[in-house]
Structures are given as C-alpha cells and as structure tokens.
Amino acid sequence: MKISGTIIVQAPRPQVYKALRDARLFASCVEGVRDLVETGPDAYSAMFETKVAYMKFAFKVTVQVVRADEPREIEAKIEGAPVGIVGRLTATSVTRLTETAGATRIDYDVDTALTGKLGSLGQPVLRAKAKEMERQFAARLAEAFAAPAPGPASKLSARFATARPIGNKRAGPGRKT
C-alpha cells in the first residue's frame, strides 16, 4: 500500500531538514512513539502504540536511515513486529524537501506492507489512520518550530510556526505519485 502526502512548514529548508533528522524531535511528532533508542549510526528502535479502527496495537519498531541528501531528501526503512499478535510491518519512506516562497514543502511517499491481523483491516481503514497521523504530525512539527528551544543555535522562531498537510495523495498499483 502506498501513501503519499505533502506538508508545508513555514521555515527555511535547512532548518526543516535538521529537525527531521533529529530523531528525538521527529519521534515527538509521531503520536504513540516511546522508548526511542539509538542503536547505531542512523539506526533507531522504539515502541509504537496506536489504535486502528477498534483495535489497539503495539509494535517494536526499528528505523534505519538508508540515504540522507542534505537538505533535499531522506530515505528510511521501517520494520516492526506487533506485540502479542502474529504479523509484520515493513515500510520504505522517502521524504523530499523543496523551498517554496520562504517555506519548505515536505513531500513524502511511504510504501507499506502489513501482514497478520493488521493486513486484514483493509486499505480504506489504514489510509484513514495515515491521514489522521499526518495531521497530528504536521501540528506537532508546527509546535516544535513555535516552541522556544534552549540555546541560541537551536532557536526555532515563532514566525515559522505553521505546518499543514496539503491533501492526501493516494497511489495504488499502476498509478503514479
């Protein structure tokens, strides 16, 4: 299943890139992520808990940044095993950043495969959950840019406090993104 979308952040591209590469900041923008641990260079593990439809899931996830082209693009592989049920989550995420009129446009494409109980939920349910997560991520990223940060080198000005999703592009077999 492919999920694509766009988020606009009112901040310069180098700042947005730096924020997205900060694993702690990124994880704080994703609801349900806890116990983040750096396991190696550009490699992380964490617990991810979420509710999809009427079911709650907890995953042990690993994330490996496989390519980082500053300040343009980040590619990561995500793998997860649900706790207490049989199944698997695998995903590849490609994030592209472009400057547009003083803001940064974040375009993302996530190619996800789910097996087990999660895989049986169906794409419409999972797409709705992905859209909800995108809205939460954009709001939290905006908050991160609005919040005063400690130290002069890491200040994210309140004037960069707008991040919003732009639609939710969908791709499927045979459709281009």
Sequence stretches where pLDDT stays below 50 over 5 or more residues: 151-162, 168-177
Percent of residues in beta strands? over 45%
Radius of gyration: 16 Å
- Domains counted in the coordinates: how many? 1
What would CATH call the homologous superfamily? START domain
Shape: globular
The overall pLDDT average reads 82
Tally of extended strands?
A: 9
Structural class per helix/strand content?
Answer: alpha+beta
Amino-to-carboxy terminus distance = 13 Å
Largest sheet: 9 strands, antiparallel
> Which percent range fits the helix content?
10-25%
Number of helices: 3
Name of the top-level CATH class: Alpha Beta
- Can you tell me the CATH architecture? 2-Layer Sandwich
Order of helices and strands: EHHEEEEEEHEE
CATH topology term: Alpha-D-Glucose-1,6-Bisphosphate, Chain A, domain 4
